[in-house]
Predict the structure.
Amino acid sequence: MLRRDFLKIAGGGVASFGLSSLFNAGSSNADVGGALNLFTWQGYDLTKPFESWRKERKIEQTVKYINNQFDVVSILKGPGGDQFDVSSANQAYTHLFQRLGIMAPISVEDVPTLAKMYPFFRNSPIWRWADNDPRYNSVPWTWGAIGINYLSDKVEKPTSWNTLLDPKHKGRVGTYDDAFNNVSIAAIALGFDLTKISHAQLSGPIRDWLLMLKTNLKTISLNIGDQQNLLINKEVDLMCVGITLVSNAAKAAGVETVEFTVPSEGGFGFVDAAFVSATAPNKENAFAFCEALLSGETAAAAANEFLQAVVVPSVVPLLSPATRALYPYEDLDNYLANGLKLAVNFTPEEGQDIVTFAEINALWTEIKAS
Amino acid sequence: MGAPLATVLLVGVIVPGVILLAYSFFHYSNYEIRPALQFGWYKDIFTQPIYRIVLWNTLALALPTTLLSVAGGYVLAYYIAFVAKRSRNFLLLLIVGSLLASYLARVYAWRTLMGEHGIVNTVLQYARLVDQPIGWLLFSRIAVILAEINLIMPLTALICYASLSSVPDDLREASRDLGAGRVQTLFRITLPISGKAIFGSAALSFYLSSGDYVTPALLGGPTTSITFGTLIAQQIVTVGNYPLGAAISVVMVLSFLVYTLLLAAVLRAIGFAPRVR
């Protein structure tokens, strides 16, 4: 073979590999195929957006939906929990779930695109297995800000979280049964640091704020999907735990007037990560699913579906203009470090005056009963 | 002949009951359960104010539901047994047919019926009977009670019908021949004979409505949605605190026992149940 011929072949091989890695997420997983059992948020199963991805890999997917994050531990540690391959963890729960032994470590060999995430996600201890450990406890793949969804034909755009407490909205506000989100909303409305909610803050101002919110609630929905339905059916005018995807869902249901806003006090951020269950029976499929969530057209399809953000720079050019415009990707690390407030610490060390999950759950139960 | 029944009772009732009781003494912290013999959960249930509120919420739903389900079911059963001779089978078919629909679908159907933009409010506004939608038809205690009656009354009607259909016609005729009116015949003959059915349906209604956690969660308001049923579901499914969930369940079962004894005593006292000989 002549040197010229060899270079042509080698160049062609490199070019095709580069193109395939840009557009074909997950194609590097060798033993993929068969069952994939998800226990995740409704929508995060991506049944439609990932249809051709599953067909190509002959993956048969089943899904059970989470009502709130605390379900995850109860179900995965309970009877039958070992059937699930992939579940979902908000950034506040990753260390708790890891400590409870329901997560499997994920290496860059398992999910290669972990190495290509924005530095904020790649280097943050939130998703790392341990200090100085290159493995991850989960794969952060989508994020956004939580604000307020509202009916623009019924109410003015709420400029503050305290709008939810306005007596003129009595019986017209919706929220769902989740202690973490409701306590975080109260904390951010009151200007507290979400990473250090103290016991005095929780039992004092946060409790009072939530009691005032309760007087305006129509009901406490079972889950975020139910809350969304109430807004779309115009049973409520404002939805506390608001996300961008609700506007999309409303438009799909023929309701054009559902809008999303982040109040002046700021939204609090959420980063949802997919994790592989410690007892996952189909780990290779689970890793392939995580890779698809992160990279290429599949990641872009997911982000466009939810109007949420991505964690890998190479996916940004594949986003729709509407999705692309939501967040400042040109200065994302700065925005993530300084602009988005993430609640992260509900598993404090002994001696720290920081509330735990058990304490916020207990307060929320008290609020519901009062 | 008793051995299969005893086995079913042992496996299906006694063994799970003992396991539940054992769990109620275990220790729990941050999703970790440790076997123990501690009474902390029972102490919390009987001393913390939240459980009194939950008890009130539960009784405020269960007692009206029971009363109205039994009364409505009895009236319906009486009509089918003694009045509706020709349409009896059709009416029974309707009642049984209503039970074939999924419980969850029926609860969700209430939202379509009773919501602010639901069928009832739309009809009322169209007929100019109201200017604004009636808000309390959904996400209120009344909504939960109405939905639970809808779910439970077919059962009470069937139980009462089974008893009423065995009341001998000649007894009732003899009563009227002796000068008793319809009402006297009802209170002196029919009700006492069907007393066991009233007892059974009142017990079943109360157990079902007290333990229901789906209907209050889907149709209840922000203050009415928390009952013992929802609390048990929250502790076991969400928080993972099996010991507390088990303790609340044990307390509920004991309170059912108290309710059952009280119910029997009341029915006996008013003559709706045969006296124990």
